[in-house]
Amino acid sequence: MCAAVYVLSTVTGYVLTSALLLKFPTLLHRRRRVPFLSRHISHRGGAGENLENTMAAFKHAVDLGTDMLELDCHLTKDGQVVVTHDAHLERITGVSAYISDMSYAELPPYLCRLDVSFQRECVCEGGEDKRIPLLRDVFEAFPKTPINIDIKVDNDTLIKKVSELVVKYDREHLTVWGNSSNQIVQKCYKENPRIPVLFSMPRVFMLLGLFYSGLLPFVPLKEQFLEIPMPSIITNLLKDPDNMTRSRRVIVWLADTLLMRKALFNHLTARGIQVYVWVLNDEKEFKRAFDLGATGVMTDYPTKLRDFLEKIGTSK
């Protein structure tokens, strides 16, 4: 009887303490200093309105008032850091070659039409700007705009060169970098711990485990940004979403239920960790993300998101 009372009192104390610290995490953790706050984030510069990852796309998004540009980096054969998503050039240029096998001068231009990856059966037709830009071009053109860098391959030289460029252009306070790979994120952090890092995919799973076990309020976190997909948008990517199998629907529902948690988002933001939800492309998705407490939304359509934020009165 005494043992049962002891166990019950211990569990009750743990649950109450966890719930208290979940809601008021600064009782245990010092709130992170937030160098910038991003609500409006342009995915690949706004891949639904201009050719992705081009200077034209970035300029259009910045002119609209985006809070952050999201982009992707690779390394050419001659050691240039270029801004583009795919390691292989077939989809974006029609040329069957890897970026790492070509010098920057040899890179072909983008195709005139590119699929919008996160919007079913949508394409974007570009204007005159079809050049794959250098990362330094973006830094020079937008010196005051926060930039979210996805390091696309596990390459020590690429990580080192990106860090050097960030330092050269005095952007450590305006940059966040990482990848879904935990190994890449660890290398980024080791190379330059002054540049904030994202949660990798394994760390996201760890975060969810800590949250649902009640341990999250007690654990320190080195990351400053959580970027997660909204699983329910999977229907935007399928050619025939009505024919999705029941098991897949259950998986999507379960993932959405586990990830999209207001209590989790509120806890992280209270600790100074920004929460970005991607890649959302309509008002219904924007509203749901912000209602759940997301700090920002990543979109292919920066004009749509700007109009939505203006409509609800929280434009930049």
TrEMBL record:
<dbReference type="InterPro" id="IPR030395">
    <property type="entry name" value="GP_PDE_dom"/>
</dbReference>
<keyword id="KW-1133">Transmembrane helix</keyword>
<dbReference type="InterPro" id="IPR052271">
    <property type="entry name" value="GDPD-Related"/>
</dbReference>
<keyword id="KW-0812">Transmembrane</keyword>
<dbReference type="GO" id="GO:0070291">
    <property type="term" value="P:N-acylethanolamine metabolic process"/>
</dbReference>
<keyword id="KW-0378">Hydrolase</keyword>
<keyword id="KW-0472">Membrane</keyword>
<dbReference type="GO" id="GO:0005789">
    <property type="term" value="C:endoplasmic reticulum membrane"/>
</dbReference>
<dbReference type="InterPro" id="IPR017946">
    <property type="entry name" value="PLC-like_Pdiesterase_TIM-brl"/>
</dbReference>
<dbReference type="GO" id="GO:0046475">
    <property type="term" value="P:glycerophospholipid catabolic process"/>
</dbReference>
<protein>
    <recommendedName>
        <fullName>GP-PDE domain-containing protein</fullName>
    </recommendedName>
</protein>
<keyword id="KW-0443">Lipid metabolism</keyword>
<comment type="similarity">
    <text>Belongs to the glycerophosphoryl diester phosphodiesterase family.</text>
</comment>
<feature type="transmembrane region" description="Helical">
    <location>
        <begin position="6"/>
        <end position="24"/>
    </location>
</feature>
<dbReference type="GO" id="GO:0008081">
    <property type="term" value="F:phosphoric diester hydrolase activity"/>
</dbReference>
<feature type="domain" description="GP-PDE">
    <location>
        <begin position="38"/>
        <end position="309"/>
    </location>
</feature>
<dbReference type="Pfam" id="PF03009">
    <property type="entry name" value="GDPD"/>
</dbReference>
<dbReference type="GO" id="GO:0004622">
    <property type="term" value="F:phosphatidylcholine lysophospholipase activity"/>
</dbReference>
<dbReference type="Pfam" id="PF13653">
    <property type="entry name" value="GDPD_2"/>
</dbReference>
